[in-house]
Specification:
about 210 residues, Rossmann fold, 7 strands, alpha/beta, globular
Length: about 210
């Protein structure tokens, strides 16, 4: 696989890895947030090459320190496609990311011919407004996909998602008690670390099982 070295990417894992996982950040946090760091390190420790990048608005925020709104969808989609091309094309890359980053990845996965898709907390709808679904393109998604979702995620909990029409290529792994970042309530007895570790393990198993 031809991979372009870029100083604006964060890369974890061995250079000779059998697979590359490209991950985009969520709407409000950068590519090196604690959550993204933990997921990248976890996948890298399992032998995968993990490449993280930032959308233009987040890169500008890093440079200037000003919080700006996410770029228009057309810019986000085009940037994702450019990242895939820089990594050697879709057949050599599993795309995905946190929340918005995973959503945009799901919108370009079929077009670029991605090997697979991993979404870390998919924003099925805005919190408090389950009528505004973001699932139309997921009904016919052809790319093998894994969505890792907390059972009490305000962007789409277990009860919400059960009623959606989703492609048979999509598998959902539920993280018990998890919110949008997989954190369970303190009274549950579970921990955020346990859920994130479970998500990493499930993602690693999914990627390892994809056809080459």
């Amino acid at each position: 696989m031809a991979q372009v070295a870029r100083t604006d990417y964060l890369v974890d894992g061995p250079e000779g890895a059998a697979g590359t996982v490209a991950l985009a950040h969520g709407a409000g946090a950068p590519m090196d947030s604690p959550f993204m760091n933990r997921v990248a390190a976890g996948l890298a420790s399992r032998g995968f090459r993990v490449v993280r990048f930032e959308f233009p608005y987040m890169a500008k925020r890093r440079e200037g320190g000003k919080r700006g709104a996410p770029d228009r969808p057309a810019i986000l989609l085009e940037h994702w496609k450019e990242v895939v091309a820089s990594l050697g094309g879709g057949r050599s890359v599993v795309v995905g990311g946190k929340s918005m980053g995973g959503r945009i990845a799901s919108m370009i996965a079929d077009e670029v011919g991605a090997r697979g898709l991993v979404c870390l907390g998919y924003p099925f709808h805005p919190p408090g407004d389950s009528s505004r679904l973001r699932t139309a393109h997921l009904e016919n998604l052809a790319t093998p996909a894994l969505i890792l979702q907390g059972t009490r995620d305000a962007f789409g909990n277990r009860q919400d998602v059960a009623s959606y029409r989703l492609s048979g290529s999509i598998r959902i792994h539920w993280l018990e008690g998890g919110d949008h970042s997989f954190k369970p309530p303190a009274r549950s007895g579970g921990t955020e670390k346990e859920n994130v570790d479970e998500a990493i393990a499930a993602a690693a198993e999914f990627v390892a099982g994809l056809p080459r």
